[in-house]
């Protein structure tokens, strides 16, 4: 009989190295920087979708003005991401973050943005001033791959120059900001000069090239069932090995999902509604209908632990994790149970969000719920976040609740098996403690008799 041995320690070690990869961490942390401005910008989109006729009529003439914060938030996300990713990498390399971010940003702009000229005739038609214009398309999600590349290359070129001592050193007493600026001067020549040669000298569009390279991934940013299933499988399976799912999802899927959200916001600004927005495959689709309580839909498990656990450990853990779970913070339950490398919960951790994603996809394609048209704070309780992100669609809140109930049902048999096993261990431990205490009393009695 043949036996197969899986070296879980080796798997965990490999996965741990992936999770701690400097570039993935920098991209994840850098992309997180755009969340506040994107959320605030989304509020202006949400304001146009309040389900009150009088309000809708009042706000309609101001639609163009309300679109301005949206354009400068999600519409400029590549700008913010480039600077933040480069700054995070610089911090990990222990050199100046600000100068690195600025150089990375200029490198990205040269590679991704091609200035144009607005003629007098075009300016008159568009009610704009004659002069140089910058097309905004690649400032948004369409330029994210280039922004990531520019940030990574900038940080690594500066690190290489410092290692080779190709930096301008100033004497002691010079302000640190000036020292850091001059230290980045020679690397800036290489980076900005190289970007100019590529874009102007060779007439090569890096942004278009990267989009072509990653074009096979674009399938998973389209409005289809595969775009629901594949990201859920990837994110939740890597979580089982201790890798934060966002570390992989952010560089792979965010550049695909955010153009869709951007298109939805643009459609709203032109008079569309959340019901007929062009896309449903956005990051908010997963946030509010799939990852209720966090990756793995773990709010379901938190509820079971808090209200149905018979084991002391389970009840205590449930009380400690249910509040964070309501606000989509699930690290306490993932590492508290733990779910990582736990055979009891591996199946429901993947199956629950997968089932929720498929049900939400079906409800969306049948137009039973609105499309997500705004980025709302991820720490909102699920039904509230779903209600707001879909332009105040009460059906979205109900769907989110139904998904949570379905997740509870999927987790239930696995939770019961784990809880019974935990209870058995606690009873066995209590029995051993009682036997030790009894043996101790007997020993003391013998000593006293002597």
Describe this entry's structure for a reader.
- The chain has 450 residues and is mostly helical.
- Helices cover 68% and strands 1% of the residues.
- The protein is built from 21 helices and two strands.
- It has helices at 8-19, 22-32, 34-46, 53-59, 63-71, 77-93, 97-112, 120-126, 144-163, 176-183, 185-201, 206-213, 226-239, 245-269, 283-289, 299-308, 312-326, 331-336, 346-365, 382-389, 394-449; strands at residues 116-118, 131-133.
- It has a two-stranded antiparallel ribbon.
- Helix 9 (144-163) crosses helix 11 (185-201).
- The radius of gyration is 27 Å and the shape is globular.
- The chain starts with 7 loop residues before the first helix and ends with a helix.
Helix content: 55-70%
> How large, in whole angstroms, is the Cα Rg?
27 Å
Query: What's the β-strand tally?
Result: 2
What would you call the structural class?
A: mainly alpha
Largest sheet: 2 strands, antiparallel
The low-confidence runs, each spanning 5 or more residues with pLDDT under 50, are none
Overall body shape? globular
Number of H- or I-type helical stretches:
21
**What amount of the residues lies in strands?**
under 5%
Q: In sequence order, what are the helices and strands, one letter per element?
A: HHHHHHHEHEHHHHHHHHHHHHH
**Average pLDDT taken over every residue:** 86
In the sheet with the most strands, the strands line up as 1-2
Distance between the termini: 59 Å
């Amino acid at each position: 009989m043949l036996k197969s041995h899986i070296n879980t320690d080796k798997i965990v070690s490999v996965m741990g190295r992936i999770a701690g990869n400097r570039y993935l961490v920098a991209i994840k942390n850098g992309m997180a920087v755009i969340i506040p401005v994107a959320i605030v910008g989304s509020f202006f989109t949400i304001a146009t979708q309040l389900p009150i006729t009088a309000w809708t009529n009042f706000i309609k003439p101001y639609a163009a003005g309300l679109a301005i914060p949206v354009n400068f938030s999600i519409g400029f996300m590549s700008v913010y991401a480039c600077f933040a990713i480069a700054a995070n990498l610089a911090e990990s390399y222990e050199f100046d973050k600000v100068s690195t971010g600025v150089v990375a940003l200029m490198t990205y702009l040269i590679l991704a943005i091609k200035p144009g000229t607005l003629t007098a005739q075009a300016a008159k038609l568009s009610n704009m001033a004659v002069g140089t214009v910058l097309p905004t398309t690649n400032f948004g999600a369409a330029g994210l791959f280039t922004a990531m590349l520019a940030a990574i290359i900038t940080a690594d070129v500066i690190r290489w120059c410092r290692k080779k001592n190709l930096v301008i050193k100033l004497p002691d007493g010079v302000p640190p900001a000036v020292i850091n600026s001059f230290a980045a001067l020679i690397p800036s020549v290489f980076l900005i000069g190289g970007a100019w040669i590529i874009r102007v000298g060779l007439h090569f569009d890096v942004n278009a090239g990267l989009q072509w390279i990653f074009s096979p991934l674009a399938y998973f940013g389209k409005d289809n069932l595969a775009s629901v299933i594949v990201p859920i499988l990837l994110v939740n399976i890597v979580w089982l090995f201790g890798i934060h799912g966002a570390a992989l999802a952010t560089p792979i899927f965010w550049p695909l999902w955010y153009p869709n959200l951007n298109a939805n916001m643009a459609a709203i600004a032109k008079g569309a509604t959340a019901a007929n927005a062009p896309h449903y495959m956005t990051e908010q689709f997963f946030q509010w209908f799939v990852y209720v309580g966090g990756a793995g839909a773990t709010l379901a498990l938190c509820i079971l632990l808090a209200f149905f656990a018979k084991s002391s450990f389970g009840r205590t853990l449930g009380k400690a994790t249910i509040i964070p779970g309501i606000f989509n913070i699930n690290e306490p339950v993932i590492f508290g149970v733990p779910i990582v490398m736990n055979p009891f919960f591996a199946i429901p951790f993947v199956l629950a969000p997968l089932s929720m994603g498929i049900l939400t996809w079906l409800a969306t394609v049948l137009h039973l719920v609105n499309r997500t048209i705004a980025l709302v704070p991820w720490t909102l309780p699920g039904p509230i976040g779903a209600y707001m992100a879909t332009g105040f669609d009460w059906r979205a809140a109900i769907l989110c609740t139904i998904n949570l109930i379905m997740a509870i049902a999927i987790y239930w048999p696995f939770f019961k098996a784990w809880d019974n096993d935990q209870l058995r261990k606690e009873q066995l431990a209590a029995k051993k403690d009682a036997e030790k205490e009894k043996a101790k009393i007997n020993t003391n009695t013998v000593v006293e008799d002597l």
